[in-house]
Amino acid sequence: MHYYIITGSSRGLGQALTEHALRQADTTVIGVSRHATIRHERYHHQPLDLSDMLAVQNNLHKVFPPLPAAASITLINNAGVLGDIGYLGEQPNEHFEFVLDINLIAPAMLMNTFLSTYQGLNIPRTILNITSGAAQRPVDGWAAYSASKAALDALSRTAQKEQDLRGSGVCIRSLAPGVVNTAMQEQIRNVPEQKFSEAARFNELHEAGQLSEPAAVAAKIIGWLRQAAPLPAADPVLRLSELPD
Ligand SMILES: NC(=O)c1ccc[n+]([C@@H]2O[C@H](COP(=O)([O-])OP(=O)(O)OC[C@H]3O[C@@H](n4cnc5c(N)ncnc54)[C@H](OP(=O)(O)O)[C@@H]3O)[C@@H](O)[C@H]2O)c1
Description:
16% strand
């Protein structure tokens, strides 16, 4: 059985990734989110609030059960939030802790626990962190989000280097999915210009039908992940357009 552990499985891209993975009869998914929206005989839900670090710490063992007979194990750190969009100096301080906990600290703890729990298994093991193009450029109103995704990319690069030095065979990637038609995009379109100067551009993209559908993005990602490891890449940080069709 191939195992996927997918955070943010309740909606958006995470739900599409989960549904696409479950199409293969040899696949089981452990989904992590606050809400349970998927019912399937090979889907196991672990309710968890990734902004609650104590709950994360206390429940990590449930997310990563012993899987001695697994054919492969993949962790997809997909859950992510923008938090309230707005400029530094105009935000409550708690905003930064909230966004960084969900987008960076929780994924780091999940990566750490995945690597320690499944070390020594002689099967393909992959970690895919869902990042954003906003990690590479300043987007006003998104400072905490951009910073969290840039740090997630650094985490992916460093962890891959460490695993290469250990010769573990574990593959770690950060992947920016592009502009995907989810609740996160709905939030972006509804922010006033003085808090986010690119609001009009995102509305135009939506009106022009230029957002990717989650199912299509998920199909491309899962198809790529199911190819034989190691997944080739000079840099562990990738964009969706760099994946083979
Ligand atoms: N949509 C885009 O255009 C786009 C572009 C670039 C990157 N991304 C990235 O793609 C990933 C998926 O985004 P999306 O667009 O699918 O977002 P979305 O539709 O808003 O879904 C977010 C998912 O994260 C989960 N989540 C949010 N807060 C959580 C918490 N406190 N604890 C546990 N889970 C939580 C949600 O589940 P619950 O509410 O049930 O907890 C939900 O399943 C994110 O990392 C995002 O940064 C998206």
